[in-house]
Model the fold of this input.
Amino acid sequence: MSTVLDSERNACLICGNEYRHRESLRSHIKKHQGLTTCPKCGTVCGTVKALRRHLGHMHSLSVQEVRQIVPTRDPERNVCHICGKEYKHVWSLTDHVKKHRGMTTCPMCGKVGSTVKALRRHLQLVHSLSREAVHQIVPTRRYVSYATALARPDHSRAKEPGV
Done:
């Protein structure tokens, strides 16, 4: 890759495009390498992620079919086993999976929050609940009793307090 980039200026030596960030340049170089070209129709996408999205939407391919055509760097990389969405950080995936489990849905109005923390904030601001009341509805790990944890559908992942 060093033959196609000028790392001092973050410039592509093939076309001369310059980028503020080195990662943007690396992403751009994948275009020249043909890694963002759709094998079905020849459309050149801006990024590999955009190519995956294109294959799913324009060619109606499943997440598994897209992965076979455009594999991720690491097949075990922070991917939601329910919907196939990928995350850079494991904690982002953890927050996302909580949405699938209903852990970010307001029990009072049904609004779905992006994270458990956002749900707690929603309960305090919109429903005027005290912090203590919020923690009884949406307990943090340290407030969860072992019996409550075992009653959850995902109890196999629940940890005993203090462990």
Summary: The beta strands are 5-6, 11-12. Residues 143-147, 155-163 have pLDDT under 50 and may be disordered. The chain has seven helices and two strands.
